[in-house]
Specification:
17 helices, single chain, globular, mainly alpha, Growth Hormone, Chain: A
């Protein structure tokens, strides 16, 4: 071969490498948009609930179903969605999930009555259960180079952590300046971008070695997760002593125990136990569950405090969370690019848990006339930095060195832990806060001052318990994570099907 031919081949190889690298970052942009759509939907509708209730005329008791319908479908079907991505290919499941989520959002946004709104929210959860694990597994199988993987997971983890706060801000803006319906219609814009990018940049094809679907396992885990999410959702409205609460929790726990036993017997298990039993991976799943539970102490009760005690508008409330999101995004990049490759997860995640706990305890000092700049902003920054050390690191290690045939279901397990953690956190914190507020008023005249102090006391109780969640996370992550830097798989594939 002549020198000219060699030079031409070298140039073409270089151009191909540049195109491949550029292609990977476009893939990240596509799945990042889709992930943001799913994550912010957990909070964007919450701010619009009073307006939707007034427009459609449903009761306070029915209001929780707007949130619960989404959580039930999403939480109980995630593992099935992850395995379908492994079975049929991540691209097709991702695109079906995005398109279905958009259609469900349009249905809910156009709802003329309560039943249609709940149906649309449930369908959002169903298609979100297809979309979320497919997106994470695409990320996991696209970025195999250690440095690129760290950067990609830093960005994706920041999106996952910041989505709730962005949802509050966007929900406030849309509710205040447009209509509550636009908190649902806005998903059509996100979906259009994700669909166009997915068709253009995601690779075609299904896995060469398709796993078979574990139908008994699918039924057991879906029914078990439904029981847990439904039971915890009923705790606030029915009380812990109601069969609607403990009955579903007990049934869910029993079904999940049977599912675990079945996975050791099934020829083609839905969730192979090898996915869970790696120490770093198992620690990451636990970290996600605990973080999901603890985060609601910020997003839920601080939202109440800003709006009901300090009388912030929905837009001002959303803006109040922006510094936390900024701190989270800075910490996410620092953790994945600089710290994780050098010192490993064992110091990082426990330190993040400690910062999150400190931020929560700090929030217990809030009073009726506290200043945002001196009393709210500092703990929010501490919380944001702590979450930025936890989420991208845990997300990266939860799917690290996983076989391509298990990438979808492992990614689903990450989302499932966060969803179950969020359901547990919402139920426990709501119940504990309500009980604390009622106890505070015992023996006191129900004056406006006493009612306001009782409300503050209920919020502080929720913050203390959230801090407790993070302390438990600190201990477990310090014990379970391995010392040292994460091992890199020298045989990681350079090209994968999606």
């Amino acid at each position: 071969m002549s020198q000219t031919a060699v030079a031409r081949e070298s140039v073409e190889t270089g151009r191909a490498a540049v195109r491949s690298g550029s292609h990977r970052w476009w893939v990240l942009a596509v799945i990042g948009i889709a992930q943001l759509m799913v994550v912010l939907d957990g909070t964007i509708v919450n701010i619009a609930l009073p307006s939707a209730q007034q427009a459609l005329g449903f009761s306070n008791a029915d209001r929780q179903w707007i949130v619960t319908a989404y959580a039930l479908a999403f939480g109980s079907l995630l593992l099935l969605g992850g395995r379908l991505a492994d079975l049929f290919g991540r691209k097709i499941v991702f695109l079906v999930g995005v398109g279905g989520f958009a259609a469900a959002s349009a249905l809910a946004g156009a709802a003329g009555d309560f039943s249609v709104l709940v149906t649309g929210r449930a369908l959002q959860g169903l298609f979100g259960a297809l979309l979320a694990p497919a997106a994470l597994s695409i990320l996991n199988t696209t970025f195999t180079d250690a440095k690129e993987r760290a950067k990609a997971f830093g960005i994706f983890g920041a999106i996952a952590g910041a989505g709730g706060g962005i949802g509050l801000l966007l929900g406030g803006l849309l509710t205040e300046h447009a209509s509550w319906r636009w908190t649902l219609f806005v998903n059509l814009l996100f979906a259009a971008l994700a669909l166009a990018g997915g068709v253009t940049f995601l690779r075609k094809g299904a896995p060469a070695d398709r796993p078979k679907l574990d139908i008994p396992g699918t039924f057991l885990v879906s029914a078990g997760l439904f029981g847990l999410v439904y039971g915890f959702s009923n705790a606030n409205s029915h009380g812990w002593g109601s069969p609607q609460t403990w009955g579903f929790l007990a049934a869910g726990g029993l079904l999940l125990a049977v599912f675990t036993w079945w996975q050791t017997r099934a020829e083609h298990p839905l969730l192979p136990l090898r996915v869970l039993l790696d120490r770093n991976r198992g620690a990451s799943f636990i970290a996600f569950g605990i973080t999901g539970a603890g985060m609601f102490g910020v997003f839920l009760f601080l939202t109440y405090y800003l709006q009901e005690t300090l009388h912030y508008s929905p837009v001002q409330t959303g803006l109040g969370f922006l510094p936390m999101i900024g701190a989270l995004m800075v910490a996410a990049q620092l953790a994945t690019l600089a710290l994780l490759p050098r010192i490993g997860p064992k110091p990082l995640v426990p330190f993040g848990m400690a910062l999150a706990a400190i931020g929560m305890v700090w929030l217990t000092n809030l009073g009726l006339h506290s200043s945002y700049a001196s009393a709210v902003l500092p703990p929010l920054l501490v919380m944001g930095f702590g979450l930025g050390l936890i989420m991208p690191v845990a997300m990266s290690l939860a799917t690290d060195r996983i076989g391509e045939q298990d990438a979808g279901v492992a990614s689903a397990a990450v989302n499932t832990m966060q969803q179950i953690g969020g359901s547990i956190g919402t139920a426990l914190l709501n119940t504990l806060a309500t009980s604390a507020g009622a106890s505070y008023l015992v023996g006191k005249a129900p004056s406006p001052e006493a009612m306001a102090q009782a409300q503050l006391h209920s919020y502080a109780t929720a913050y203390w318990w959230s801090a407790g969640f993070f302390v438990v996370g600190l201990v477990l992550s310090a014990v379970l994570y391995r010392r040292g830097r994460p091992q890199q798989d020298a045989n990681a594939p350079v090209a994968v099907h999606m």
